[in-house]
Amino acid sequence: MGSWGSGLYQDDTALDVREAFRELVILPVEPAELVERMATRFGMGAAPMDEEEVDFWLALADQLHLYAIEHAPTMDRAREIITSGADLAAKEALEMAPRDLAKRKVVLGQLLDRWAVPHPKPRRRKMMKGPEPFVFDIGDVWVYPTMNHAAIPVQWGDYHPATIGDFFRRDGWGAMIVFDRWLHQDFHARYLIAVAWLEKGAEPTLEAVRAAPVDGWFERDWLVEDRVAFVDCQSEMAFSTHFPKAKKMLKALEAVRIGALPVDADALRAKARVIVEQAFDRADGLASLLHLLTLRSTHDESPEMVSIQGEPCRHLPVASVLAG
Q1: In b/e form, how buried is each residue of 139-158, taking b as 16+ CB within 10 angstroms?
Q2: For the whole model, what pTM was predicted?
Q3: CA-to-CA distance for 147 and 150, rounded, in angstroms?
Q4: How far apart are CA 283 and CA 187, in angstroms?
Q5: What is the dihedral of CA 148, 150, 151, 156, to 10 degrees?
Q6: What is the pLDDT of residues 216-255, one digit of tens each?
Q7: Among residues 198, 230, 202, which one has the least CA distance to residue 213?
């Protein structure tokens, strides 16, 4: 059960709306489409006056007002939710205490007053110029040096390129292969990237990566929009891109593209189940991806590095999703 209170953003739904709006408001789309994308993401619009929807529409209207984005249907709907008593009825149905209901009524009145005039200091809507460029092609294989199977740390505040060698002793290599890519929301570049499980040794070749199993170190399921997700090994990674940072992080990781392998889309989907994407709300995901590669190591004040090696998914070799 989610948490909620008398304030507008004391409700889990309203908080989620505010966070999602920050992602979608940068898309170069008209207000009506922006509202439609928000409603689709949250599954709203069938019954705006119902308990399940009122917080969504109030929060969305407030965000539109904050950014000085004009969309009369949403604002009218939010005002009706307040003036009709639908919101207070929803909160009463949730057994909100009388004292908190009184506070909520005050909050709703303040919202109506605030929306009655343009926002005095509206937040600037910084829109993207177009779809993000792809950093990776499908099939790309990148390798990077490791220490005890851990990649070079890329936390900018803790490490400096001039001193990285003082505590990072290269004793092996890591490799990752791009299984898929697409545009999320028609604008954000996203990838499905698998990490190959490699023994310590020389810099890997394309054939070595082809023969390797997928590394099953990652513990979290990443949900992928109308795409594939490996659920047995839980090693898949799909992230959006912040293009300038991605290039900088790849350089810091000392990652090098060594070529490409032919990914077979049908074979890939045969190894996975298709699920609906819900988890990606940020636009700096590729940087997070590269950061995750370093989380197998931690750096303390010594500075010493402690590594955690992944478990290979022997039943999921990279070759099983390749053509030829």
Answers
A1: bbbbbbbbbebbbbbbeeee
A2: 0.71
A3: 5
A4: 10
A5: -120
A6: 533 333 334 344 444 444 333 444 444 556 677 777 778 8
A7: 198
